[in-house]
Design brief:
Layout lengths: L4 E9 L2 E12 L2 E8 L2 E11 L2 E8 L5 E10 L2 E7 L5 E8 L2
Antiparallel strand pairs: 1-2, 1-8, 2-3, 3-4, 4-5, 5-6, 6-7, 7-8
Length: 99
């Protein structure tokens, strides 16, 4: 299973569905990348891989500064998970790997 590449994602936020492209590069049990969308891009920090489960952090700047904590499960070309936005709680996130 390779998670490397670009993933078309949708995160269900209080401001509506936010589309983004999650670009991931693995290095052993860790990964780096960028989540880029209409609100700008955020670097992936502290990316960890445990089997088919990914965990990471992102520092959101817009519309307000906040640390987001992501977790997702990869099943083939499908990503299913959530992003925790502190006081706003968990926001569902889904994605499909680009061909």
């Amino acid at each position: 299973m390779s998670i490397d590449g670009k993933w078309d994602c949708i995160t269900k936020t209080p401001m509506g569905d936010q589309k983004s492209v999650l670009t991931l590069t693995t290095n052993g049990n860790t990964f780096t990348g960028v989540n880029a969308g209409a609100m700008g891009s955020m670097d992936i920090e502290e990316g960890q891989i445990d089997g088919n489960t990914l965990t990471w952090k992102m520092e959101m700047k817009v519309p307000m500064p906040m640390t987001l904590k992501g977790t997702a499960t990869i099943d083939g070309d499908t990503l299913t998970g959530s992003v925790n936005a502190g006081a706003f709680g968990n926001m569902a996130m889904t994605g499909t790997k680009q061909a």
